[in-house]
Amino acid sequence: MSHETRPAGPSSPSPPDRRPLIAFAWLWVAAPLAYGVYELVQKAAQLFTG
User: Fold this and answer.
1) What secondary structure letter does DSSP report for 15?
2) pLDDT in tens, 7-44
3) What's the CA gap between 48 and 42, in Å, rounded?
4) Cβ-based neighbours of 12, under 8 Å, separated by 6 or more
5) CA 43 to CA 50: how far, in whole Å?
6) Cα–Cα distance for residue pair 28/20, rounded to 1 Å
7) Alpha-helical runs (H) found in the chain
8) pTM beyond 0.85, yes or no
């Protein structure tokens, strides 16, 4: 069994790791959305229960 490996040279630069940026963007949107949904549920419960 032979394993071929390609050397990482200047012809194939690795793209920058954008996972932290993506996580931050998801939090930027998901946190206010979750708060809004929570408030909506609270207000709806008050409206329908008295």
Assistant:
1) P
2) 655 666 788 899 999 999 999 999 999 999 999 999 99
3) 10
4) 6
5) 11
6) 12
7) 19-49
8) no
